[in-house]
Amino acid sequence: MLWSIPLLPLLAAPVMYWLGKHGFGKHWFGKHSGRPLLSLAGVGVAIVTLMLAVLAVLGDWSGAYRWSSQIVLLIGVTPVSAVFAIVVPLIAALIVLYSTSHESEPGGDGATTGQAPVRLIALLTAFVGAMELLVLAEDLVTLLIAWELVGACSWALIAHEWQKAGNLRDAACAFLVTRFGDLGLYIAAAAAYAGTGSFAFADLTQLDGWLLDVFVAGAVLAAAAKSAQVPFSPWLFAAMSGPTPVSALLHAATMVAAGIYLVIRLHAEMSAVAWFGPVAIALGLATALAGGVVADLQGHAKKLLAASTSAQYGLMWLAVGAGFPGVALVHFVTHAFMKAALFLAAGIAERHVGSYSLTAMRLGRLLPGITAATLVASLALAGVVPLSAAWSKEEIITAAGHQASWLAVVAAIAGGLSALYATRFQLLAFGRGPHGGTSTAPPQPGHTRMEAIALYLLSAATLVLSLLWWPGVGTRLADLLSVDLPQSKPWELIVSLLLVASGIVLGVWAVRREVSGSGRQSARRTELADWFGLPTLAERGVSAVMAFSHGLARFDDRVVDAGIHASARFGAWLAKMGDRRGEGVLDGATSQLAKGIDWVGQSARQAHTGQTHHYYTGIAAGLAAILIILGIGALL
Length: 636
What we know:
Blueprint: H1 4-21, H2 25-30, H3 35-59, E1 62-66, E2 72-76, H4 79-102, H5 118-136, H6 140-158, H7 167-196, H8 209-226, H9 235-239, H10 244-252, H11 255-265, H12 267-270, H13 276-297, H14 301-321, H15 325-353, H16 368-382, H17 388-401, H18 405-430, H19 449-465, H20 473-480, H21 490-516, H22 523-529, H23 534-607, H24 612-635
Antiparallel strand pairs: 1-2
Helix pairs in contact: 1-3, 1-5, 3-4, 3-5, 4-5, 4-10, 4-15, 4-19, 5-6, 6-7, 7-8, 8-11, 10-15, 11-14, 11-15, 13-14, 13-18, 13-22, 14-15, 14-17, 14-18, 15-16, 15-17, 15-19, 16-18, 16-19, 17-18, 18-21
């Protein structure tokens, strides 16, 4: 039964696509009037997947499929996989609800057709199935299959509007960066099989020595690339070419979440290597700080949120490296709901002003309901008590303090940066501005009720999760999930809250400068906002590799192929010579050979007279010849 959880959305996706594109189903799903039915189908699949996940957790389901005598595909439910398996379809259902109203099927010229986004909903549904398979996997082969499916779905979703200039390039960039990291997972699987003779997670405890180091290194590479840790972070900016719902699902619960899931799920095995903890802390802390700075300087709404995603997942890596993977798990949940809400809000704002530029928005007076819902998510991202993400962020700071006090302070600084960019996003996107009063008609179509409902529900979930601050709720949840919580220290909370307050004040000051025009984008700021020039550096590296490749190609054409071309010309010359003179020469040689063979045959027949004494004479002559040869050999 457990296989039904990933298989339901994976099989439903092509059915939905076919119904929307072919035959009688095209009139149901494919037309503009079919949006409600398409929404019902997409949300229905996600809800049924959610219900199956809940039943699997309660019933302790498991599954196995014997591929061969050596490979058995295993899936199961653990506390970590249970959380992911429930959160993914829950958030996906709300994003699908938003998507059917927000998006349209792209036309051949890149313009929207107004038709229901059948292909997008089908891909989002398949994405959910791939992620469910990934989080339920209990062996490395199943994990690799799901890992590849997640990568393929993300590429297709980022390139959904492939007719637009640059979208295919950006999709390829995101795919290739994460694909490079995927090699690490293949290396890890090979090391596990070489050391244990099995791909099952349960057998990883037998792995030791240098093979364990190789396994952990490969897993860290794969997870860091997927969760957009430094230096892989810039691929998230390329992923922003995808539609807003894609960004929301990818950042909140699927693609980026796959990396942190891997290190949380295999923490017990990976922490057996002494260097894993320090590496995870270094990666996470560097990404949290760098992502915070990039987000603080960004003027593009979705890219600001993308940099924020890298930073928040960096904090999760920090918690894992500090030895508290359960804290990272809780922060994943709180982050998923608030980040999905913020991306949907950014999409609504873009539809009203026709741009993702934050300085062009300030829709607070025009959209009071959307502004209030977004404010809840923004305050949670800022770490303002008593909202949900503030609780998990403070737990991360406490976890860092268990390693060293200075580490807790640096983590708190990263939290202060979060408050700064959350403030910038809220005030620039939904602060008071030129779009004041309902008499001002928006230049774009705006948003629908379904889009607003999806945002309201995600913000409501953020408020519900704020119950973690209620005495005893957090500890009971930790006991339920078998999560170890660090013992907090009062000074860490005080320092963290002071830095959050400072971040909010600095955010207000920064917004005023930007609105007044005194904070114009300099070339240096633009470079810093684009991940400190990492994409440019990567582009130069790619250009150098391509130039080297072109040089090798020219060498191959001029040197290696020269010998082949010479051989071809010599062969052609021989063919021409054979056509002109070779046929007569060959025929003459064949005729002479035939005559020689005939003469030998005639001579041989002369010896066969049929008289016995002739044969005896021949035998005697042969014996005499042999004796002579033997005598000569003896004398020599």
